[in-house]
Amino acid sequence: MGKTERDALGRYSRQMVFEKIGVRGQERLSAATVVVMGVGALGTVIANSLCRAGVGRLRLVDRDCVELSNLQRQVLFDEADAAARIPKAQAACDHLARVNSRVVLEPVVAHADSSNIEDILKGADVVLDGSDNMELRFLVNEACHKLGVPWVYGGVLGSSGNCMAIIPGKSPCFRCLVPGIPPAGSFSTCATAGVLSMASGVVACMESAEAVKIITGSAEVARGVFVLDVWNNAAEYVPFSANPGCPVCARGRYEMLGRRAETLVASLCGRDEYQIIPGRKAGIDLAEFGKRLSVSGTVSCGRFMLAFSNGEIGFSLFPDGRAIVRNVGDEKAARSVYSEYVGL
Q1: What is the DSSP string of 85-109?
Q2: Considering the domain boundaries, does residue 244 fall inside one?
Q3: Integer angstrom CA distances of residue 300 from 114, 175, 205, 285, 323
Q4: How far is CA 234 from each of CA 25, 35, 45, 161, 225, rounded to the nearest angstrom?
Q5: Residue 339 and which of 29, 48, 49, 134 are 20 to 30 A apart at CA?
Q6: Could you give the CA distance from residue 29 to residue 34 in angstroms, rounded to a whole number?
Q7: Contact (Cβ atoms closer than 8 angstroms) between residue 113 and residue 260
Q8: pTM of the predicted model as reported, rounded to 2 decimal places
């Protein structure tokens, strides 16, 4: 036995002695590619669990940067990440690289939409939901069904959460569970209802367990929805059947994938910030752009993000042209800042 094999046995020994995984299951984990969509309360716990479990390749996808309010529940970040506003995908990969050097870590700092979702999921053996965005879940559901890739949904609000494994062609899809995107203002958000970190931790661990079962070929993959409330000591498993009229898994209609990308402006949850997402990806050279921008204010530039401030307003700019504009009162003001400094 070589040193590499002995190291693996030592690192994963407690996991491999579990009869449902064993040596063969560990080999499957080490050969797997997992995509985590969103690196927040759910995604950081998922990424941490699967990195330590020895998944071969982890692709972490998130459009946002670390801020102080994240630290209550997002376990891969610290105060230095928040102070520097490091992109979440990058900060998480930097941390996990010190946890398990055997895992290939891919940070993807991007807004996922119909123009790039299939590229983001390319080569995935399983996709895990770490998002807080219903539209993204509908998009992932369609892309995974089209590509034939299993994915695991997870959602948390307050002290309650849900988890569901979705296997294209074998189980109901997310659209069977949620027939349509609820209209704006009709449901609570993390800013209005809060999030208990213990609830997100439990749901994320359940998601991770379903992913391990999928990767190792287990017959025990759940075929329904787990529903739990950690504050009120409630948990149940709710089986349900596919909707024979489902537009996605019954009819193969991909409404979200078919949407044309347009310039979007969105208020970020609980913050005085607006995200600008251009309809067409820009391919900005951040270092060169930063040189031009430096005459107008303070610029700091990294591999994934440029930060700008003139003492009144500020923004973070990403290579694809996406920006997060700070200290503005409304959408119109955010558009004006973007137009003045970046160009629409």
Answers
A1: T-BHHHHHHHHHHTT-TTSEEEEEE
A2: no
A3: 31, 42, 36, 14, 14
A4: 32, 30, 22, 11, 14
A5: 134
A6: 10
A7: no
A8: 0.83
pLDDT tens for 222-246 read 989 999 999 999 999 999 899 999 9
Confirm whether 19 is domain-assigned. no
Report d(CA 113, CA 119) in Å as an integer. 10
Final residue belonging to a domain, choices 239, 272, 289: 239
Q: How far is CA 303 from the centre of its chain?
A: 20
What CATH number is attached to the domain comprising 161? 3.40.50.720
Lowest model confidence (mean pLDDT) among 148-152, 221-225, 257-261: 257-261
Q: Which structural domain range is residue 38 located in? A: 32-239
Does 273 lie in the same domain as 132?
no
Residue 333 has φ and ψ, to the nearest 5°, of: -65, -40
Give me the number of domains the chain comprises. Answer: 2
- Do 212 and 93 lie in one domain? The reply is yes
Q: Using only C-alpha atoms, what is the Rg of the chain?
A: 21
Is the same domain home to 234 and 278?
no
Give pLDDT tens digits for 67-120. Answer: 898 999 999 999 999 998 899 999 999 999 999 999 999 999 988 989 899 999
